[in-house]
Amino acid sequence: MLMPKPNADVLAKRDALVAGLRRIVADPEGVIDDKDDLRAFECDGLSAYRQLPMIAVLPATVREISDILKYCQAEGVNVVPRGAGTSLSGGALPLADGVLLGLGKFNKILEIDYDNRCVVAQPGVTNLAITDAVKGDGFYYAPDPSSQIACSIGGNVAENSGGVHCLKYGLTTHNLLGIEMVTMDGEIIRLGGKHLDAEGYDLLGVMTGSEGLLGVITEVTVRILRSPEHISAQLIGFPSSEQAGDCVGKIIGAGIIPAGMEMMDRYAIHAAEEFCHAGYPLDVEALLIVELDGPEVEIAHYQTQIDAIAKDCGATVSRISETEEERMTFWAGRKAAFPAVGRISPDYMCMDGTIPRSQLPKVLKRMNELSKQYGLRVANVFHAGDGNLHPLILFDANNPGELEKCEAFGADILKLCVEVGGVLTGEHGVGIEKRDLMGEMFSEEDLKQQQRLKCAFDPDGRLNPGKVFPVLHRCAELGKMHVHNGELPFPDIPRF
User: Fold this and answer.
1) Taking a C-beta distance cutoff of 8 angstroms, is the pair 264, 337 a contact?
2) Which of 86, 256, 294, 357 has CA atoms 20 to 30 A from the CA of 25?
3) CATH top-level class for 109-226?
4) For domain 8-102, which architecture applies?
């Protein structure tokens, strides 16, 4: 995975940059330049790719962030923002000639406003901490990535994270009200807030999922919801993944929108069961976890319908949680699936693509064929309800060539997602993992237009370069105009 070539002139002034940053950051330990200490920042959740940052800096105030960015802009130094480092696309991979800007000290909830049903938090607050702060009063925050115990809310905004309950309650973008951010030139601005949508350009939407390319998020305002009256989960087992995929489409087609609908295949089921003893059936090839919330009578009605649909699709097991403890046990296995799979393989790479629900059976069958073709096992754990796939490709990095084989397998899965009408990512982002596949989904002109947007926020391309775009153009190149024989194109257009 190629990254931008380090700038020798920047590396040559490393000591001066360290001294300059230490003049900005009040905490004497807030600037890290020791090689061993920098190891903590060498990768994010996509640990197959590692790179020591030139310097890591840990500011404690928004003013410090602003001054750091101004300083780096003036010195021509690239900056990589980093939250909790749980990104699975390499979005927080450091640069050898860049400053890694860690936001771990921004870990406070600033305000809980029940009247307006929102929480204002610093970007380093974990996703789960928001729900924990309000659940005593009967509220919760809906987006719940599997890493919610560790991932930060600022990182959730940067990647537009989803989770188990995004089928019914939406991704981060649907639950985000406002942010405070700092641009590369140090300007502190606010987008959105507790009020309804603002007029004009949807800049809040632009920042959501921008992967650290446009600005550094320093405050987040999110919507909280009332806890549902009743919640129940249902385990449904199938003889094949294709039958389970068919059931997913038919449940949604019947007009039933579960709070969450997750799917696991045999590898994932067995790994999760051995890891946390969730009581999963081990004689099935695929397992659906379907959660419904709302009035108890409504849930009972829908579960009867789901039972009938599942039987028509060939289900051999169906079990409804009878207590809250049992419901949480059902989910314990799903939430622990990623670490559980780590017990059955030395390494694995977690992919992320999204497809139309109707294509689930076809895609699952094709992934099984690719698994045999590459000679690598794949465990499937994903948000079945909205077609967001998370295939876990199992490999051993100690075997020569297996990482490269894994990368090729993963690329074929993502190409398949686009081929059937889906997209390259659902919630993990592009980062470096999918960067070189962007041409599979977008035309050259599409990519240039996206880069023009980046130029509006970061004209010199200092924020998180090397990510998302397979070929990064300079802003001057994107804006240039071809003049032929001294004549401007479209001379009738007014020019300013």
Assistant:
1) yes
2) 86
3) alpha beta
4) 2-Layer Sandwich (3.30)
